[in-house]
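Objective 1.3, modelling of assemblies. Example input:
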Amino acid sequence: MSAPGRVWRNLPAKAKAKVGAVLFGLFLLAAVIGPQVMPYDPSYANPDPSLLMARPSAQHLLGTTQTGQDVLSQLLVGIRLTIELALLVGVIATAAAVLVGVTSAFLGGFWDEFLSLVSNVFLVIPALPLLILLLGYLPQRGQLPTIIVLSVLGWPWGARVVRAQTLMIRNRDFIAAARESGERGWRIIAFDIIPNEVSLIAASFVNTVLYAIGASVALAFVGLTDLNSWSLGTILYWAQGQQALQLGAWWWFVPPGVAVALIGTSLVLLNTGIDELGSPRLRATRGAARIAGRRVWPTDPTPVLAQLTASRGRLGGFLHSFSRGSLLDETTPAGGELR
Amino acid sequence: MSEPIVGGLPASGLPVTGEPAADASAAPAVNADAEQVGEPAAVTSAAAARGPLIMEAVALNKVFQLGRGASLQAVRNVSFGLYQGAVVALVGESGSGKSTVAKLLAGQERPTSGQVMLRGKPADVRRGRAFRRYKATVQYVFQDPFSSLNPVHTVGYQLSRPVKLHQAGVRDVRAAVTALLEQVRLTPAGQYLAKYPHELSGGQRQRVSFARALAAQPAVLLADEPVSMLDVSIRLEMLNLLDDLRARLSLALLYITHDIASARYFADEVLVMYGGQLVERGPAEEVTQRPAHPYTQLLIASAPDPDNLGSALKGGSASQSRASQSRASQSRAGNVGPAPAGCPFSSRCPLADDKCRRENPALQPLSPARAAACWRLDAAVPPPVASPR
Amino acid sequence: MSPVLDISGLSVAYRAPGGDVRAVKHVSLTLNAGEVVGLCGESGSGKSTLAYGATRLLRPPAVVTGGSVRYGGRRVTAGGDPVDLLTMSHRELHQMRWREISIVFQSAMNALNPVLRVQDQLLDAIRAHLPLSRGQAREKAATLLDLVGIPRGRLRSYPHELSGGMRQRVMIAMALAADPEVVIMDEPTTALDVVVQRDILAQIVELKETLGFAVLFITHDLSLLLELADRIAVMYAGRLLETGSAQAIMREPAHPYTRGLLNSFPSLSGPRRELAGIPGSPPDLRDPGPGCPFIPRCGHAVAACGELDMSLAPVTSGLPPGPVSHLTACPIVATQVSQEGVLS
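Predicted structure (C-alpha cells):
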C-alpha cells in the first residue's frame, strides 16, 4: 500500500470526524454570517472599468467578475444558498428514505414488495438527465423546484440501505420480545428499531447532503437553476460563460470550485467517522495498534513484550517505562505448574 | 460397575449401530404423509397433581411452506397440558420441533390445524387487542440473553414498558420495576435501572428477561432453553430461580431444553419430542430412570452423567473399534433420501423393523401416567442404570 | 519423556485505554504426547486467551507479557532442545502452524466460510501448509473426510448444507490436514446436541489413538472433561485454581470452585437431590481485587485468602499418590481433604 494510503488507514476515526466536523462547521458559519458581513451586494456591477475582471486587491479580496461584481460576496452568498439547499434536500430525502425503508422491512409481504419496487424504479432512472428534463420543463427555476426534484430522486438509495438494516434488526430477539410485551407496531418501529439505526441514518443523511451539493452545482453549472440567485454553481456557470479560464481570471472560478470541493471533503470525513464510531468492529480491525511503542498489525503474531522492548534499546525502554499503563513492571511470578 | 457406553448405545442387549446416519440435516424432514396410526393414548399428566389445568395444546400441527412446493411438517399431532404450579419439560434435539411448539403456544405462530386452549376456551390470538390480552396471560422467555434485550435502552426503560402496558393504573412505575428486579434477585435493584444490556453478564441479562416476562403477571411462562446459552456454573442458580418463581407466583411453566438431566431435576412431567412428534411422556423421574422409547434411551445414554462416568471414551477397547467401524459405515451411506414414511426415528433406531418404517405409531399407553410412541416397546429394554459409586 | 507442549508462567494482557486487562496470569500447563488435557473455565476465565496467546493468534491489543511456550515435537527439534514459540519470527511460526500445532475453532458455524465449498476450504488449509499439487491435495481432502466419517460426496457442499455435527467434523478434518502433534480444541461441541456431541467426542478419541496427537480440550463443561480428559486444569479469572488427573479431580476436588462446579450438574442416575450451584458471577478482570479471585463466591473464604499469591501446592490426600500430581491454589481445602479422606 502506498504511504498516503497507509496514513489514511491509520488515522483514527475520531480524528477524521473531527477534521470533517470543524471544516464543515466553518462553512456553516460562513453560510450563516457570510451574507451579513459581505462587503458588497453580489449583484452590484461596478461600472468602473479598472475593476472589471480585476485581480484580488484590498478592495476586492477575491477580485471581480467580468461585470465588476465582487467575487467574495458572491462566494459567501453562494455558500449559504448551496448549503441551505443541500441540508434541506438531506432532511427531506432522509426522512422519506427512513419512512419507506423501515416500513417496508417491518411490514413485509405485499408492502415490502411494492415499496421496494418503487424505490428500485427511482434508483434505476438516470438522475441527471431526468433532473435536466424536469427542470427544463418546469415553469419556475428557483430553489424550491430544485429542492423538490433533488429530494424526489435522492431518497431511494437511503431507503434500500435502511431497509436492509431493518430486515436484520427485525429478526433479532429483542423485537420479538417487544411484541411479546404487547408493544404496538408503530412504537416498535419508532422506539425499538430506529434508535438502533441512528448511525446508519446519520451516515445516510450526510451522503444525501453530499449528493445534493454535487447535483445542485452540476445543475447550476449547466444553467438549469435560477440564474439570478448566486449559488456556487451559478458563479461557475457565469465564470465559464465569460471565459474566465481562458482569460486567466483564476480568482473567479477557483474559490467557488475549491469551496465545493472542501464542503464535499468535510462531509466525507464526517461520514467516515460516523461509520467507524457506529460500528466498533470496524474500529478494531482498522489498522495497526501501538503496543509498547511499536506498531503491530492485525496479521502479525501476538506480540511478546520482551521482544518488543528488547529491540528498543535501553533509552527507549527507560523513557517508555514512564508511560501510563506500562506493562514493564511485571514482577516475577510465583505460579504453580501442571506437571 | 456400569455398562461401557459405546458409540452412544449400551454395548449389550442392543446391537451396536453407533453413529446415526441421519446426521446430514439438522431438521429431519418429516414426510407429511406419515400420518400417525391410531389415536394417541390419553394420559393423566404427572403435572396435574399440582394444580388446575391452565393451558392445553390439542392435536397441534404446523406445516411450513418452504417455497418451490416443498413443505416441512415441524409439529405433528402434539397434545399436552400445562397446570398451575407445575413444570412440564419438553425435551428434544434441534430440529425436533420443540421451539415451534412453544411459538404456537405463545401465539407467535398459528397452527396449521389443532387448537391452543387457554382456561378451557380456544385461545384468540389474532392481531391487535386480542393478542395483547393473550400476552397478559401467556409469556415467552427467549433463549439468547445476548440478543433478547434492546442494546440502546436501559434496563429500567425496557422493564417499564411492559409494566405500563400490563399493569395499567400503577402509579409508581419505578417502584414496580424495582419490585420486579428484586423478584429475579437482581439486587440492589436501584443500580440496575440505569444499566445498558452490554454492561450486564449473560446471567444478569437472562434475569432481566425473566423480569420482563413477569411484568405482565402471566399465568403461563414458556421458557425456551432459558439456560442453554449460559455458563454451566450459573445454570443451576437460574433453574432454582425459575423454580422459586413458579412456586411463589403459581406459574404454569413449560421448560424447553435439550438437556434431559436438568429436565429430571426440575420438571414434574417430561415430554420427549423427535421429528415433530411426541415420542414419550410421563413423570420426570420415571421417564429418565426407566425410559421406554429407544430415542429417550439414546438421549439418556449420551448425556454426560457425573454420577455415572463411563470410561468408554478413554482407552481404546475392542468394542470401541467395532463401534467405530459400524459407525463409519453408517455415515458413509449419508442421508440424502426422502424421510421415512413411518416412525421418524426408524432410520436411526436399532430396533426398527418393516412395520416401523411403514407405519407411524401414535402414543401407546404404558401406565395411566406414561405413554410412548413405538411399535417395539416390548423389545426396547432400557439400559441398566448403574447405582452411584 | 519431555512434554510436547510446555507452557510456563504465561501471562497475557489486553491493552486498553483505561488500563490493561490481565486475562491470563502466570499459568503453567504441560501437554505430553498422545494425552488429552482438559482446560475448564467459565466465559471470561481466560482459557481461550491462554490457548490463542500461547500460539500467538491473538490480535492487538493483546500482548504476551511473560512466560515461555516450549514446543518439543520431534520434527521441529530433531532430537534437540524444545523451541520457544514466543521467540519465533512470523515466518518460523508459519512453519509451525498446522504442521505441528493446529486448532479446531469454536462454533464451526462461524469458522467455516459460508460462500466457499467444503473442498475449497480444505484445499486452502492443505496447500497452505503442505507442498502438494492440486490433484494430490484433492485426494488428501477426500482422505481427510474419510477419516472423520463424512461421505466424499460432501466435498462439493456448502457449509449451510451440512448439519452442525458434520460441520464440526469438517473443522476437525481441517485441523488434522498436516498431521500435527498438538490439536487445540476450543469448545468444539458447545452448540451441538448431546447425541451428536457424544459421537464427536468418540470420534476425537478414535482419531487420537490412530494418529497419535495430543489434545488440549477447552470447555466450560467439566462433566465432558471428566469423561474425556487424562488431566484437567481448572481456570478462573485468568489463574489456575486446580490441576490433576481426571480421577483425582472427580473424587477429591480440592478447590471450592471445582467442588461448586461438580455440584452444578443435575445427575441422571443418582438420587434426585437439591443442588446449589455457585452463587454470584465472575469478577471484572480489570479490577479483580487482592488474593484469590474466587473470594466473593467462596463459602470457605477467610481473611488470609486476600493475601494468597495463588501458587499451586500439592494436595495431601487419603488416596495413594498417582503418577500425576494433584495441585490446588486453595490452602484451606487442601488441608480439609487430607482430614476427610476421599470425598464422594
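The CA atoms of residues 33 and 146 of chain A lie 24 Å apart.
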